[in-house]
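I hope you will forgive my troubling you with a question about protein structure. The matter concerns a single protein, recorded as an amino acid sequence and a row of backbone structure tokens. Please examine both parts with care and let me know of anything in them that strikes you as inconsistent. Here, with my thanks, is the record as I have it:
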Amino acid sequence: MAAAIAEPRTAAAHALIHSLFPGGPGSSRSFTAHADGADAYGERLALGRGAQLGEQLVYRPGAIGCEVDGALTYGEFDLPFFSTLLDAAVHRHSNAPARGRRFVDAGSGCGRLVFAAAVLQPSLSRCVGVEKVPELHALACQAASRCEMPAGLPPCEFLCADALEFLCTPHSQALAPDCIFAYCSTWPSEGDVLTDFSLACAALPVGTRIITTDKRLGSDKAGRWQYELLMQLEGPNAETGGTSVGYVWEVSKSVCWDKLLV
């Protein structure tokens, strides 16, 4: 029954996303313009690459050439695979109510997965995209201004901010994000263990679900915060022409700010 319900929602999310953001990985329309002025996939990639090669260009003495900030790599994640991972994050072995989770796409780019999450999981209370690059954030806001979401779906909001700083900021229990997606395949890590992102999520409430791609969350060796792996799944990644591994985690121990908040 769940799969039967998910299929039309995935189709509806796919139709909405392609109306707002034409083209995409593997699409023959990737570099075509759209009649209503929406940027095509190639242009979105160019905006993301421009951010990487701008002020974030870093010279390392002794290195050949320069290094760029991998956390600013722009990508568009496979929508059906995202649907599967999000469904698991919202519903799998939940000790908390499935309804009312607050979704955040950390590094949301043009916002496509924020809109998709609202359609795929109408039980969410709100869907928020946090994007550091102003030009990509502007695309999300433009899409929101012309998007007519069906009634009964959670609102979509977009913030121009550093996603890690946002996650580190203390939130009240009623406002703290508790369902997070990160397309973090190129983010800083030691081996396949995320460094900065693992620390940024350390103060999220116990029970928060976190989806990562190709890299794992790292629990604190001293035991101050811990992440439990709920699911690991391999799925398609059209951008690389191969596959990615999705991980669904739950915060099982937190450096929580709740006692400091009113």
